[in-house]
Specification:
two-stranded antiparallel ribbon
Length: 513
């Protein structure tokens, strides 16, 4: 009698609770179990335990993998491995974390007893990519040029033995790296310059060492090539004070290396200041000079005599021109692998012949002739001065291998143009067409490409000379170097055409002689 209503009530309760699966188990237990009683009873009746409802479980789905456009299978496989944790991935991530925790300021383990050197720790060099770039460029590029003086000492060992010189070496190497690419050193590298100047100033407080004097000389050359005049003037004055404190240039050591670097800095400043060099170093200009077939100058002496009206000036100009030609032939006769290679301990042909002394000697001869009275009294002083300035451009760009468009070459190119503007070039073309073309090509080579009209002026004059004589100069002086300057210029030694002869009048003949 009482069973039916209870069963109906329970079935309705179960049905309602079944619609809410999250509360089914909890509510079923509360209804079937009275508080304080262990048996499921309702009014003395034992109720059967209702069967638990089966919850509907959604099938497990794999995470959706989104493929990017043009994603390769390797990247997709790598992505799937990284998304699923595994033992191998955990080990790999642990290794990566360890790599990230490596301290880069730790000093390398170098055994100095075995000849090792630790420049990073001893001289406090910045441990970054710029230092690595500078040292690598210095060893593998700069040392294999003709800019270091001869005989070439193991320059890297010398530079690594002094803090001041090494800081200058790093700054110089960075500048050369950008210079050969036609760029200026970015402002981000100015801390290297400040570090070098700070070390130099410390050396000025005491008796300077040989390494410190080389550092100041290199800094002077660097500022002359790519710095401001106010800076290299200060370095030059400091270098002179250091030489006086040491008792003269002849007392310096390192087997003459200090003297040669300072001598080049002295001549470079003299070129920019239009003065004579202030130092007189001991040079070896004629060591191991083999006999090289020369060139027949023909009537060059007679043709120059028409412009100079002085036998002393004529002989000096011919000596400079032929000496530059000989040194260029000397370089071309040396095999390239043994020319300036610094990887071997054996001396190179340039070291054995003291090649930098030869360049220094001829550079001083050019400066002495520029300051001579015979040049000032010549009727063709403007052209002859341009000829000597072109010789200095050839010395720096072809013999010393200084990168083009440096301050010295640009300054000399401007002087060449200003001198040639004062004369009628047709007058010079009648007497010395070869020298005129040689001067024009070197003036164009040193001209600043960023200056409007600087190279265009030389191009117009070269085209005019090409029209008068049987010679063809490559456009833009492309692939012209060394002996090609002389060969192209000497190709213009022909008799002027009838059109040129008709342009010369009596006034021109009087001016030429």
């Amino acid at each position: 009698m009482f069973v039916a209503p209870v069963v109906v009530h329970l079935s309705r309760l179960v049905t309602d609770r079944g619609k809410r699966p999250d509360a089914a188990g909890e509510s079923a237990g509360e209804e079937s179990k009275a508080p304080g009683e262990g048996d499921d009873t309702k009014n003395g009746l034992v109720l059967e335990e209702s069967a638990p409802l089966k919850e509907k479980r959604t099938p497990s789905r794999k995470p959706i993998r989104i493929r990017r456009v043009r994603q390769t299978k390797v990247k997709a496989k790598r992505h799937s491995k990284s998304s699923s944790p595994s033992t191998g991935a955990g080990v790999k991530s642990t290794r990566d974390n360890k790599k990230k925790q490596i301290r880069f300021d730790l000093k390398p383990q170098v055994d100095t007893k075995l000849g090792g050197t630790d420049p990073f720790g001893v001289f406090e060099l910045p441990q970054d990519k710029t230092t690595d770039l500078a040292l690598h460029h210095w060893i593998h590029v700069f040392q294999n040029t003709r800019m270091p003086t001869n005989p070439r000492q193991p320059w890297m060992q010398i530079n690594l033995s002094d803090k001041t010189l090494l800081s200058v070496t790093v700054y110089c190497s960075i500048n050369h790296f950008f210079f050969i690419r036609g760029q200026r050193c970015p402002p981000a590298y100015l801390p290297r310059k400040l570090n070098a100047i700070r070390n130099i100033n410390k050396e000025l407080l005491k008796v300077p060492s040989d390494h410190a004097m080389v550092a100041v000389a290199v800094m002077t050359l660097l500022e002359c090539m790519g710095g401001e005049p106010a800076e290299w003037v200060v370095h030059r004055r400091g270098l002179q004070l250091m030489i006086c404190s040491r008792g003269g240039i002849e007392t310096l050591g390192l087997n003459g290396s200090v003297q040669r670097v300072i001598s080049w800095a002295d001549t470079c400043c003299a070129v920019l200041l239009r003065t004579n060099p202030s130092l007189q170093p001991t040079l070896i200009p004629n060591a191991l000079e083999p006999a090289i077939p020369g060139v027949s100058v023909g009537n060059l002496s007679e043709r120059l005599q028409q412009l100079t009206a002085s036998s002393h000036l004529t002989s000096g100009l011919i000596y400079i021109y032929l000496r530059l030609r000989y040194l260029t032939q000397f370089l071309s006769a040396i095999p390239v692998p043994t020319l300036t290679s610094s990887s071997s301990s054996s001396p190179t042909p340039l070291d054995e012949s003291f090649f930098s002394d030869k360049i220094d000697f001829i550079e001083r001869a050019i400066l002495a002739l520029l300051a001579s009275e015979s040049l000032a009294e010549s009727k063709a002083a403007a052209f002859l001065t341009a000829l000597l300035n072109a010789s200095l451009v050839f010395v720096y760009e072809e013999l010393r291998e200084v990168p083009k468009w440096n301050n010295v070459s640009i300054c000399l190119s401007q002087r060449i143009r200003s001198g040639l503007d004062l004369i009628e070039l047709d007058n010079v073309a009648r007497c010395c067409p070869d020298l005129l073309l040689w001067v024009l090509m070197l003036g164009m080579s040193g001209a600043n490409p960023l200056e409007v009209g600087a190279r265009a002026w030389f191009v117009r004059e070269i085209i005019e000379v090409e029209g008068l004589f049987e010679v063809k100069v490559p456009k833009g002086l492309k692939e012209i170097s060394g002996m090609q300057y002389f060969e192209l210029a000497e190709g213009a030694i022909t008799q002027p055409s009838s059109r040129v002869e008709s342009d010369f009048d009596e006034d021109v003949r009087d001016e030429c002689g």
